[in-house]
Amino acid sequence: MYPYLDNQVVRAAFAVPALARRGLVAYKPLLRESVPELPDWLTSRRSKGSFTAQRIAGLARHRDRLDGLIVSSPLVGGGLIDPAAVRSALTQAARGQCATVIADLHQMLVTCWWLSGQTTELEAAC
Description:
The protein is an all-alpha fold.
């Protein structure tokens, strides 16, 4: 269900040399080879897409729920993060005021979510 958190999947991905994953000519040669029915516009791309606008919209839409996730995080309980600082970053990012912190905030929220064990509840919300 969560392939990027599965140890076997992670080990298999890192077992493939970086050059083979990226390629010199094709952007994602393994993807094209493993799933040939994917459309050419997807497998022939030369760069990653930008999803900043979608992330900002998602943060704004789910801000209250994410705020609760931060406050109840074991990271806060253990004194490892300052909830006021993270909540401030969430507020700014949800308003589109600080796009530079979105990737870091995303990692923080995923960590809080994973530690909370509320994966099924959040999946239902999405």
